[in-house]
Specification:
It is a single chain. The chain is an alpha/beta fold. It has two domains: 114 residues, NAD(P)-binding Rossmann-like Domain (Rossmann fold), CATH 3.40.50.720; 171 residues, Dihydrodipicolinate Reductase, domain 2 (2-Layer Sandwich), CATH 3.30.360.10. 35% of the residues lie in helices and 27% in strands. It contains ten helices and 15 strands. The chain has a seven-stranded mixed β-sheet with strand order 12-11-7-10-9-8-15. A six-stranded parallel β-sheet has the order 3-2-1-4-5-6, sandwiched between helices. Helix 1 crosses helix 9, helix 4 packs parallel to helix 5 and helix 7 packs across helix 10. The radius of gyration is 20 Å and the shape is globular.
Length: 332
Amino acid sequence: MTIRIGLIGAGRIGASHARIIARRVPEATLVAVADPRPGVAATLAEPLGARGQTDVEALLGADDIDAVVIAASSTAHAELIVSAAEAGQHVFCEKPAGMSLEEIDRGIAATAKAGVVLQVGFNRRFAADFRAAHEAIGGGRIGAVRQLRSVTRDPGSGPSDPDAVPPWTIFTQTLIHDFDTLNWLNPGARALDVVVTAGSLTAPGHPTLLDHATVVIRYDNGAIATAEASFAAAYGYDVRGEVLGSGGMVTAGDGASTSMRLHDATGRIAATAHGDVELMVDAYTGELTEFAMAVRDRRAPSVTGQDARAAFAIAQACIESYESGARAQVAS
C-alpha cells in the first residue's frame, strides 16, 4: 500500500519535504501541494508529478489523500492538525505542534478521537549518529546519565530583519529541537525546571530579538543538561550533542555534510553544511519514511504528540525564566 500524501506549505522546509516524499520515500506518493500564495504550490508540485493548489481547505479531506504533511507557518499548526484529523487524515506536522500546551493538547485529543497517526518533525532522532547515541545510552553503554549538552547554530551573521523574527523564536522554533533531543537522550527522565540566559548579540538593544541563548535544565533523575542556540554561525549550520554517563561518554554531530576528512598542506578540511536541509536530508527522509510506514501499518510512530508536548513545556518554561530572571518550573 502506497500512502497518498498532501503537503501544506511550500516554503523552504515544505519544498524539501515535497522533494523527499516524491523522490526518496517509496512507501509514499506526493499527490498535492497546497499554499495560499498564487503559483507557489504549482511551481513546486508539477515537476514532481503532483498538483499544486492555493486552497488549503480543499486539500484537507480530499478523496485522493490519505495523510497530510504540515509545513505551514507554526501559528497555523494546531488548527491544521485538528482539521486534518476531523477529515480522517493522518498527520505529520513540523515542530512545534502548537504555540501553547493547550493547542498541542487539542491536536493530540483530535487525532486520538479520529484514530489517526500524529507524528511531529523532530528530525534529529532520525540522524544516524544521534540514533546510534540513543541506542548506546539505552543499552547501558555509558552507565547512568549525568550531564547532557545539545547545540544548534544557524548559519549566517544573524537575522537580516530582526523585526521580522517573532518573539521567543529561539525557544519555540530553534531550541525546541534541542529540548526534544535532550529528553530523548535521557530516557525515562522528566525535565523539572530551567534557568535561561539569552540576549541579542547581532542587534544589540533590539526590544524583542533573542539570537543567542543558553538554557540549563534539571531532570528528575538528577541529570543536568545545557542547550545552546545561536542565530549567527559564520561557518555554517551546526548541530551537536553530548552525553556524559557514570561509565563513559557519547557524542553526535560535527556540523559536516560528509565524514570525509582531507589532510593536505593547508591542514585538515571537512565539508561544512550551510543549512539544515543539506545537513539533515537523510534524517528528513527517515522521519517521513517512518510516517508513511506508521500510516500503512496502523501503528504509533516513535515521535508522538506527547513528545512534542514535553519539548514545548520546556520552551514555555524558558520564556517564564527569561521574563522573571529566575528558575522556572516545567509544566507536567
